[in-house]
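TA notes, week 10

Several of you asked for a full example with nothing omitted. So below is the full record: structure tokens for the whole chain, then the designed sequence directly under it. When grading your own attempts, check the secondary structure regions first.
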């Protein structure tokens, strides 16, 4: 019986198994290359190209702007700041450090 370990030269031999593996590696390499170099849009398998929210729109930044513009008073500012601090933490994403 001819096995891969005792191949006598007749027939395709071990290349019958290696050629599909080589082609699979080539296809995987092309897919990986395309995924790393393709532009990323809002839709598609790669998701958004980044955080679409402007960096200045964190809850703490909005609260600070409202206080600075006079929309809310100091008591309201500190009350809302304590609520945000409990929920998100003082050093949360986009917050003040």
């Amino acid at each position: 019986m001819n096995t891969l370990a005792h191949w006598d030269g007749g027939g395709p031999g071990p290349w019958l198994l290696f050629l599909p593996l080589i082609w699979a590696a080539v296809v995987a390499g092309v897919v990986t290359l395309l995924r790393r170099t393709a532009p990323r849009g809002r839709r598609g398998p790669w998701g958004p190209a980044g955080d679409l929210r402007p960096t200045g729109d964190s809850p703490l930044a909005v609260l600070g702007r409202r206080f600075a513009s006079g929309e809310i008073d100091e008591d309201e500012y500190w009350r809302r700041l304590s609520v945000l601090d409990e929920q998100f933490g003082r050093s949360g994403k986009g917050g003040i450090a």
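Helices lie at 15-37, 59-69, 74-88. Use that as a sanity check on your answer.
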